[in-house]
Amino acid sequence: MTLPSHPFGTEITCEAIIAQMSQAHGWEDRYRNVIQLGKKLPAMPEELKQDELKVSGCESQVWLTHQQQEDGSFHFAADSDARIVRGLITLVLAAYEGKNAEQIQAFDIDSYFEQLNLIAHLSPSRGNGLKAIVEQIKALAEG
To answer: From which residue to which does the signal peptide run (predicted)?
Structure first.
């Protein structure tokens, strides 16, 4: 099955998201930006929303799957039943989409999140869920 394509990591890059968030006026503005990004994430087909694709450690339901391309790069598809989590997923996809395993492991996700100035405003369970998504992607990249 072909995974749905999305603009994250290609048209919508980490740099673009950092620039957008740096223009935000306060937490509410950042929150709105995250929700808007989530609206650009295509829904994952229902047949892919299987228990074995759920990310454990997330309060909301989150599904994550991937395909490794012939050139070694990864294409990810993810979805959630929560709007804010869909937005948070886009932040992660912008960081990892189209990268190979070495690039995924080398990417400084903590620095990226710090530049977005979001983590401090997330509930502990949302923050843990975001970390769980990142860890799942890193584990998939390790094979």
So the answer is: none
* CATH number of 14-142, picked from 3.20.20.70, 3.90.1010.10, 3.40.50.1100, 3.40.50.1110: 3.90.1010.10
Q: Judge whether 46 and 26 are in contact, CB under 8 Å.
A: no
| Distances from the Cα of 3 to the Cα of 7, 9, 47, angstroms | 13, 15, 11
- Among all residues, which ones are annotated catalytic? 58
pLDDT digits (tens, 9 = 90+) for 18-68: 999 999 999 999 999 999 999 999 999 999 999 999 999 888 999 999 999
What's this model's pTM, rounded to 2 decimal places?
0.94
**Where are the domains positioned within the chain?**
14-142
Pair of tokens at residue 133: 């998504």
Residue 87 buriedness (CB in 10 A; 0-12 / 13-18 / 19+): buried
CA–CA separation, 73 vs 96, rounded Å? 9
